[in-house]
From TrEMBL:
Protein source organism: Listeria fleischmannii FSL S10-1203
Family: Belongs to the LacAB/RpiB family.
Highest taxon of the lineage: Bacteria
Residues that bind D-ribulose 5-phosphate: D8, H9, G65, T66, G67, I68, G69, N98, R108, R131, R135
One family name in Pfam for this protein: LacAB_rpiB
Protein's name according to its UniProt entry: Ribose 5-phosphate isomerase B
Keyword Isomerase: yes
NCBIfam families on file: PRK05571.1, rpiB, rpiB_lacA_lacB
Active-site residues (renumbered): C64, H97
Amino acid sequence: MKIAIASDHGGFHLKQAILNFLEEKEYLYQDFGCYSTDSVDFPEYARLVSKEVVQNQSLGILCCGTGIGMSIAANKVHGVRASVVSDPFSAIMTRKHNNSNIICLGERTLGKDLALLLLDLWLSTEFEGGRHQKRLEKIE
Ligand code: RB5
């Protein structure tokens, strides 16, 4: 499974740090941009990653200034469960209970080390299924 990743200009530096992390941990990924700090519109990048995640039933990472704009845009795509995460408990629970398939991280709200810790927790936690599955079906 390839992890789909993108950022806007506000999340560009965090995305670069995450790419290094993914390389070190030997995750497969596809980088959908952006490729510099030139100003871009985050919904375009959220859409690219969201489409990829839904089509391939994979996971995605979106970075912007706060993670919020990316999550709002990503959740417009049917089948996406995107979560802005800023604490370790939420990083775990949004996988265990919500089976989130996209994590949204804010470069301007999180330090790099915290962002990478949250991502590591999120990637290594499995969905519990069971009673949570029917709730996800109700969202659909
Ligand atoms: C860009 O300045 C900023 O608005 C964007 O990165 C993001 O934080 C939006 O939610």
